[in-house]
Amino acid sequence: MGAEMLLKLHHLHLELPNGTALLEDVSLNVRRGDALGVVGESGSGKSLTAMSVMGLLPGLKASGSICFEGRELLGMKDREWRRLRGAGMAMIFQDPMTAFLPVRSIGAQIDEQIRLHDRVSRREARARTVALLGRMGVPDPEAAAKRYPHQLSGGLRQRAMIAMALSCGPSLLIADEPTTALDVTVQAQILTLLCEIRDSGAGVMLITHDMGVVAQTCTHVAVVYSGLVVEQGPVAAVMARPLHPYTQALLEAIPPLDGPRPEALPTIPGRPPAPDARPEGCVFAPRCRFVRPDCAVRPALREPEEGRHVACVLYDA
Amino acid sequence: MIRSFASRTGQMLLVIFGISVLVFCIFFATPGADPTARIAGRGASPQVVARIRAEYGFDRPLPVQYVTMMQKLFVSRDLTSFVNHGQRVVPEVLQAAPVTLSLVLWAAFFWVSGSLVFGIASAVLRDSWVDRLLMVLGLIGLSMPVFWLGEVVNLVTQSRWHDTFLFRWVPPLGYVPFSQSPWGWAKALFLPSLTLAVCFIGLYARVLRSELLTAMGEDSIRTARAKGAGPVRVWLWHGLRLSWLSYVSLFGLDFAQLLGGGALLTEVVFALPGVGRLTYQALATLDLPLIMATVMYAAVFVVIANALVDGLYALLDPRIREGRHGR
């Protein structure tokens, strides 16, 4: 504990204009110097969670609470939110090829973000851009700044993306599957970079579906299933002894590195429910091997052990 | 750079050559297209026909005729009309060109500014009543024939309401050279160019709206918003930048086409002595040298405009600059 709370989502609920709930109940915390891995299957709502923190989902109705550095973000005017975006919190996207504007040089795009938030001259902004690119390990940053996104390799593009995200010194960095579009060696470099950022005191929220990535870079993990956080806790503890049946099943599905090769990898039978067809009770109950009659009532997120949260009837006292 | 420029120029010349051959063949080499009979008039004696044929060189082989005509058109520039004997064709086209240029420049100004305003407004307010109203207006503008609209404008501003305060300023039909009176020039061209621009405003606003909405769905627009850019900046700086391409190429072609005489109907209706009206006269009297001259003039403009658009493309999108292995 001790460290300052940076971001606190409390019962975040997000629905479409027609009333379909996309996120049912997302509660999670990020402290300074923490890296929170948000894991879940495709469509579980991990990206939506990130986007709603950034306020990038107009047209969707959000309720609950998003508290960033002690300020409530929901209900804030867009003008104020805009001042936070890019400066207080920044986001890295999955595919750096499409995330950059293809028709302007990456340097110009990073300059733009700096000049949106700080009153500096073009020349100063460019100097900062070049310094940032250098810090991100881009060789010959001055020339790289003048190049267009399609002229850089995937790894360099993602470094430029991270440089852009860090250009205004955000205290929270949200990375939405930052390594999915990259090959494995580049992936490792980018993850190391994220670790360095975390160590420098910022909070990192890493959205991924890769447990391995979480184990490598994160201090905490939150498991999202069908628009709900079902388990949250320190990475080491969750990996060693997952509490929620869904987390257990997820970890079992990782192929073992040594020992005899299993005949078939364990999978979770069934598929996650669609947002408009979620069960009344526990959302995981239809696929759960421990399902009991009292799963018909949706369990709340409790803290059975210090620092570990889980939403499952198995741990109701 | 120099090599691509040279190859580009070569291509342009080739296209112009092709067009000239094609036009020549249509008017001189298709069966029954013998211009002698038309020049000689109905009921001319065989001797007269034979004399005319020899005089105009129609008895020589076709390639020779073609080369002679091109030589007269481009080199000695003394090609004369078949209808108004002795009238030189090239100076006539060159005299008409500034009129058309003025008209089309004004029209382009109206249609670009109009379509930008309408297109952006309806994209930003998509699915609202404003959007629907603008798109219906655009469709109406698009489907109104320009000659009809021109006649209606003339009827209203020249006769019916000419004496009301609204249209008292409207000058009589015709053209006033810029050098003679800039204000008169602007007044004479205001209504014709607006009439010409109406259908383009409708078309371009629709194109811009759909391109802009597609662009706004791109990931890079999300990035722009994540950077903290405000809506004005996101729409105008990032969104427009992505949706320029098809707008620009469309503009280049339409602009060139109009300069080359495509504003024919407008020029005829408003009695502007431009290239379009010249083409109209040439067609009405089947004056082959004049047709040849106006068509070649138009072809040159379209080809040049195409090259310019390609250059602008490369300027707007760096991916095109690198050539084939872009996207």
TrEMBL record, chain A:
PROSITE patterns, per the entry: ABC_TRANSPORTER_2
Keyword Transit peptide: no
GO MF annotation terms: ATP binding
Xref: SUPFAM superfamilies: P-loop containing nucleoside triphosphate hydrolases
Swiss-Prot/TrEMBL keywords: ATP-binding, Cell membrane, Membrane, Nucleotide-binding, Transport
Residues making up the signal peptide according to the UniProt record: none
Record-annotated ABC transporter domain positions: 7-251
Transmembrane segments: none
Membrane topology: Peripheral membrane protein
Pfam families according to UniProt: ABC_tran, oligo_HPY
Coiled coil: none
Subcellular location: Cell inner membrane
The organism's place on the tree of life at top rank: Bacteria
Family to which this protein belongs: Belongs to the ABC transporter superfamily.
Protein's name in the database: ABC transporter ATP-binding protein
Organism, as annotated: Gluconobacter cerevisiae
From TrEMBL, chain B:
Highest taxon of source: Bacteria
Chain segments annotated as coiled-coil in the UniProt record: none
Every ABC transmembrane type-1 domain range: 101-309
Membrane-spanning residues: 12-30, 103-125, 132-150, 185-205, 244-270, 290-316
Subcellular localization, as worded in the UniProt entry: Cell membrane
CDD domains, per the entry: TM_PBP2
Sorted UniProt keywords: Cell membrane, Membrane, Transmembrane, Transmembrane helix, Transport
PANTHER family reported in the protein's UniProt record: DIPEPTIDE TRANSPORT SYSTEM PERMEASE PROTEIN DPPB-RELATED (PTHR43163)
Similarity annotation: Belongs to the binding-protein-dependent transport system permease family.
Protein name: ABC transporter permease
